[in-house]
Amino acid sequence: FFRPLEKIAAVIETYPRGIAGFRRYLELLETEAEIADAPDAIPAPVLKGNVVFEDVSFGYDSTRPVLRGISLEVKAGETVAFVGPSGAGKTTLLALVPRFYEPDGGRISIDGLPLDAMTLDSLRGQIGIVSQDVFLFGTTLRENIAYGRLGASDDEIMAAAAKAQLGPLIAGLPEGLDTLVGERGVMLSGGQKQRVAIARAFLKNPPILILDEATSALDRETEREIQAALEALSAGRTTLVIAHRLGTIRNADRIVVMEDGQLREAGDHHGLISQGGLYARLAS
Ligand code: ATP
Question: Which residue numbers delimit the ABC transporter domain (predicted)?
């Protein structure tokens, strides 16, 4: 019963951004039908999270390449922030890691294993995704968090909620974890929904994380809390962040600057600023 649901929600969790997001979601469901386990795919071992992109190219249609010759190694445990103008291909590149799409050329591997050598379920089971818009079910807070790992105990759910800084919210609700969040979570604020997504990821405890940082306006206090929760979440995990704000970028071990489907620059904040290139222009 849960497996198809899990698949759909893994997809929904990734991309919904209003109507455009919904369209993408439908596209992804179609894509899903095409991406299947290779006949000789094996269940992935417990991954450390060394992610290697080798000369990766991709286009949603054959006439327009969206990623062109991307090569990059992300070490296990490293946090890499992807920045660049809108449409540069950041989201697309990271969508290839859980195999929502297949590259047209080149290859991606984790710990030396090509992505398609592993079964989809075992690969996606080791990738946590926290995106801008979280898909919530019209049920209780508990079930929404537990969705990160079906079958988690109440203690585990509470621990994950606390790490995601949901403790005060839950304590203030008369029905605590049993509170209904409303259809698609309408009773929760944007910041609270993001914290539910973070709690799910804590519960899932994956070696690899993909964060699509929120662009929506949050008040400063909330933003600081979410930032702190995300930092705690990314500790000890390979973290790939689509970053929109300088704060997050500064915390990254490395910044990768993309433009027009290509990697243009990589380095740390100060190094890139002093290079005086695209990053320096974006940051000014
Ligand atoms: P942003 O910062 O605005 O999210 P981005 O760098 O993440 O941008 P992508 O979302 O990866 O960029 O988009 C790269 C290109 O691919 C854009 O030209 C975009 O219009 C196109 N694109 C993205 N998703 C799809 C899709 N599902 N079908 C067709 N084209 C798409």
Answer: 51-284
